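Subject: Enterobactin synthase component D

B.,
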Amino acid sequence: MTAAVRLGRIGQALAALFPAEVSVALCNLAAAEPAALWPEERKTLGAAVPRRVMEFAAGRQAARQALSALGVAPRALPVLPDRAPLWPEGIAGSISHAAGLAVAVVRRGAPLGVDVEEDQPLPPDLWPEIASAAERAALPAGETGLWLRRLFAAKEALFKAQAQGARAMFGFDAAHVTLAEAGFDAQFQQDAGAFRAGDVVRGRLALVEGLVLAGVTR
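Prediction pasted inline below.
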C-alpha cells in the first residue's frame, strides 16, 4: 500500500467521525515544512527538539489546509497560554499527532476535539491514571491495555472539545467513559470547565491503519 493510499484511508475514517460541516486534513511529518511556519508560530517553539518542530509544523500545515476548505485565508495559528492553537474568530478547531502523522479538524461554530493514537496497549502502570476501576471493569475481556489506549484517545478528544481560550484543566477522573460500538459516551462526574456534573457527551472512534481516531463534537 502506498503512503498516499494509506493517508486517504485515514482521512476517510477521520471525516466519518464528524458532521459534514467539519473540514479535516492530514499531513505526514515527512512532508512537514518548518520553514513555512509563520514568525508568530516559530517563536513559540524556542529550543524544541527537531521532532517536536516537525510535529508542530505538520499540525499547522494540516490546520491551514482544513481552514482553506472553509474559505479561510492562510494565517498564523499561534499558541494560547493553555497550549492550544489560536483559531480565527468564529472557528473551532483541534489538532493531534502521533505515529508520524498530524491531523486537524475545523468548523464554524461549537467546539470539537480530535485525538490520534497508535493502536498499541498502554502499559499496566498507567491504567489507574487513565481509567477508574469501574471503567476498566466495563471493558471487553482480554487486551485491557489495548482497550485502555482507545479509552485514553476518547478522553483526550473530550478534553480538547472546549471553547477557545476557556479550556479548563481536568483529570481523567472528571468523566466516566463507556466505550460502545464505533463510539463512546462520557458522563461528567464533576463540574469541569464548561461541563457540568451529569452532562453526557457522545463521541466516535475509528480503528484504521494501526491508529485510533477519536472525535467529539458539541
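Helices lie at 3-15, 39-42, 50-69, 127-130, 133-137, 144-160.

T.
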